[in-house]
Design goal:
Length: about 280
């Protein structure tokens, strides 16, 4: 859509975002670096020679961690790919805990993150707060099943619209009540108190954003469990997106992770080396 300015210049106007989300987004925000000077100092102090052929720092660090266990620098397998493959095949997964990535995930529901945060070992989380953020304009994630049936999606959407309006009305009424009862309270605190009460009626479909830090062993575990055809369909689609990001980012550590199309019409994740 566009509008005419008095001068006759056409200016594009922004379209509001679709309040209904059908796909998650994954942003790779952080990766590791190797402190080359300190690595050189360690090798010099120990009288060792070491070189590797991967530009990916996480893969270098995993290899260094593994070689430290046996002081096998300059010995045995020459390429990082060979070294990591041996780690995967022998299920020496603790070495992979030293390779870490930071992902920012959006377009997912609270229902999904209730499952995601159950992955504790090797993960850290920072999630959008419904106590501080006004959810009147929140977006909602359409379950994959309802994306396939227009009639069911219409019923679902009608319900969400009712809850959206109910939340907005309740938040305003609660804010007014808190202001009457506690006029001495700072406006920011009044809003927080009102929102933390009103959020109780928000549905699990409410979109959230979550910053996740995980090591490669933890990410592999997540991909294997949540990318399975037996997983909840929404988190399965997220696992597929995470798998695509990490296999591109670290082809040696995640080389055995495969995205495949399944008979149910959705992709899944298959991992060759299980439970590393």
């Amino acid at each position: 859509m566009s509008e005419e300015k008095p001068s006759g210049t056409t200016v594009a106007t922004e379209q509001p975002p679709d309040p209904y989300i059908t796909r998650p987004k994954v942003y790779l925000l952080g990766r590791q670096v190797v402190v080359e000077d300190e690595l050189a100092r360690f090798l010099n102090d120990e009288g060792l020679q070491f070189s590797t052929d991967t530009p990916q720092a996480a893969e270098v660090l995993a290899e260094i961690a593994g070689r430290t266990c046996y002081m096998s620098f300059g010995k045995g397998r020459k390429s990082n790919q060979e070294y990591i493959e041996n780690i995967l095949a022998s299920k020496h997964g603790s070495v992979l805990e030293h390779a870490v990535w930071n992902l920012l995930i959006t377009g997912v529901s609270r229902a999904l993150t209730h499952e995601l945060v159950r992955h504790r070992a090797g993960f850290g989380y920072s999630q959008l707060s419904q106590r501080y953020v006004d959810e009147s304009d929140a977006r909602y994630v359409v379950p994959p099943l309802y994306q396939r049936n227009e009639e069911l999606r219409a019923k679902w959407q009608e319900t969400v619209d009712l809850l959206r309006q109910a939340y907005e009305n309740l938040a305003v009424a609660t804010t007014d009540y808190v202001q009457q009862q506690h006029p001495e309270m700072a406006p920011r605190d009044r809003r927080k108190w009102a929102r933390q009460a009103a959020r109780s009626i928000l549905p699990n479909a409410c979109e959230t954003k979550i910053f996740v830090t995980g090591n490669s062993r933890a990410w592999r575990h997540f991909l294997e469990l949540r990318g399975s055809i037996h997983a909840d369909t929404e988190i399965r689609l997220l696992a597929v997106e995470v798998g695509r990001v990490l296999t591109k980012e670290s082809p040696n550590i995640f080389h055995d992770v495969e995205i495949v199309d399944e008979p149910d019409g959705m992709p899944s994740v298959r991992v060759q080396h299980s439970k590393v």
